[in-house]
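cache lookup: miss for this entity combination. No prior model stored, computing from scratch. Input as submitted by user K.M.:
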Amino acid sequence: MRKQNKRLVFVLIGLAGVSVAVWLVLTAFRHNLVFFYSPTQVYEGKAPSHGVFRLGGIVEKGSIKKDGLHTTFTLTDLRHSMVVHYTGILPDLFRQGQGVVVQGRRDGATTFMASQVLAKHGANYMPPDVAAELKRSMAAKAKAALS
Amino acid sequence: MKLIHKYAAPKRFYELAGTLTPGLAIITVVLFVSGLYLGLYWAPPDYQQGNAYRIMFVHVPNAWMSMMAYVAMAGFAAAGYIWNVRLADILAKVTAPLGASFTLTALVTGSLWGKPMWGTYWVWDARLTSELILLFLYVGYMALQASIDDPRRAAHASAILAIVGVVNIPIIHYSVYWWHTLHQPASLTLTNQPKIYITMLIPLIIMSLGFMFFYLTMLCVRARSEILWRERHADWVRKLVGLET
């Protein structure tokens, strides 16, 4: 084999080997690479039962109760939900219907004491009037579907 | 193969890059000026983030370029390693600091946006961590280059690092789909409709092209000075700088 072809084969085999190795490592650590658990995973016992972990989901509409710096809200993944207690400043994007990730400990079966609240941002970008228009047309569609 | 070797002769490329640089620089400036104007004044505010989203016109192009520059660097390094193309070694070497600065800019702008929007400057989620690893790969590549005096041996050793590091690129890209991350998934994909409204998308595309041309401009400028340094004993360089007539 020519020297150049040899080097080409060496690079290709090397790259394939490293890819497989990295894939195996990532698969093995899959559990540790999860940034947050969903309320369903907590319900199914897949999340840690004690110690600090992160919980992610959507802030249920109408569930936010504020008392000074203390906030209580329901975090849901639309199948199961947990009540979150948090004292501190909330990020700008925190609002009902928004995806959030909270860090803290479980307190009983459905209560979560959060020490940090992070807002998760969606991939959608649009001007306010377009968002309002979209909301109107969605509502009209839902109404049409009901009648 | 012979043809590539002929046109990839450093002297030839030096002249070619010299001709291209002014044009590339003008295109870059025009794209940056129009992109920033459209992005900062013309584009409407976002329905959730208000004006804070405008940092994306710098953040997103830099994040894209950080990955594209890495693929380019690894490609050049591989070509230099496999076929002994001297020009490829040079292009790989001068791409590294450019890619590192794209990566750093993406990380810093993302962090500044993260504080008001997410509520934190930094989290160790898969997207942010893999992008940080990309920065370390660039820095490691540059350190390895700098630690070996002989250019050919430096190119060979660092090429291996660059090629191995390519594995990180798909991880960065797919991290937001493979794992739960705080970072949002891509708004722009090849297969789906864009999730960014058209008046915000246009400045983003112009800024991305701007950074792409910025990279090409800087690649030409930096490759030219690297060629001059490496060929400093060659007749044509000595003539160029007036040491010989």
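stored under new cache key. The CA atoms of residues 140 and 146 of chain A lie 10 Å apart.
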